[in-house]
Specification:
Largest sheet: 4 strands, antiparallel
Shape: extended
Helix content: 25-40%
Order of helices and strands: EEEEEEEEEEEEEHHHHHH
CATH architecture of the largest domain: Roll
Strand order of the largest sheet: 7-10-11-12
Distance between the termini: 56 Å
Number of domains: 4
Structural class: alpha+beta
Radius of gyration: 28 Å
CATH topology of the largest domain: SH3 type barrels
């Protein structure tokens, strides 16, 4: 097997698997329709595969340092990453000692700003403060300090990154089409919330000469509605 080539095989479950270390050789049929693979576990037999189920990767485009970036695959961050190699259609990632391919279309590469000098200085300063302030556990360890221990990587797409790099623009959020209420409702409640206007309600109360202090229930509803529409 050519050591410079990586061989991927599409499993019956539709998942690409790196079979490079298991293969002795790949033989292409004369008609170009089938690829025959000889595995180390059974060298006497050739296993036929359609071309659509076998990919040979060579000449990587680039490599990434796992200390400087993190990969998010279909929204989930990959942990324990050791090496990252990018090919035309795949990322080949070694994680926890195992190498696995991921479709480029499924991967988002996020820069780790915790390694930037200015951001690292700020995080180190915050860590030093947590050693002397905050709630401590039974071993006299700062609980806040333990949380900062998880900040070895800070994605440039995170909210924290926007605070550590003030020049970065915050992503504008659009109001959801459907509001999710943090309390039990009946079919009347959403309509009441949509129609409720605090300023108009207060003006009506003043005109009527009534107590202008809204009820506790209305105050809670008003605060929630303000947060829901401004976040």
């Amino acid at each position: 097997m050519n050591e410079k080539k990586v061989v991927l095989v599409l499993s019956k479950d539709g998942i690409w698997e790196d079979k490079t270390d298991e293969i002795l050789e790949c033989l292409f049929a004369p008609n170009g329709v089938r690829i025959h693979i000889r595995f180390k576990s059974n060298p006497e037999k050739l296993f036929p595969y359609s071309q659509e189920r076998v990919r040979q990767l060579e000449d990587p485009i680039t490599t990434h340092n796992p200390a400087e970036v993190q990969l998010r695959v279909r929204g989930k961050v990959l942990l324990g990453v050791e090496t990252i190699t990018k090919y035309v259609d795949f990322y080949l990632v070694t994680s926890h000692g195992k190498r696995r391919p991921y479709n480029v279309s499924d991967v988002d590469v996020e820069r780790n700003i915790a390694v930037d000098p200015a951001c690292k200085t700020a995080l180190d300063y915050f860590r030093s403060i947590t050693e002397v302030v905050g709630v401590q556990n039974n071993e006299d360890q700062s609980l806040l300090s333990k949380q900062f221990g998880f900040l070895s990587q800070v994605s440039d797409a995170s909210v924290l990154a926007k605070y550590l790099t003030p020049d970065a623009a915050l992503k504008a959020l659009e109001s959801p089409e459907v509001l999710i209420y943090p309390f039990g409702t009946n079919w009347h409640s959403p309509k009441s919330v949509d129609k409720y206007d605090v300023k108009t309600e207060m003006e009506n109360l003043k005109c009527k000469g009534l107590n202008t202090q809204p009820s506790s229930r209305r105050r809670r509803l008003s605060r929630w509605w303000t947060r829901a529409t401004q976040s």
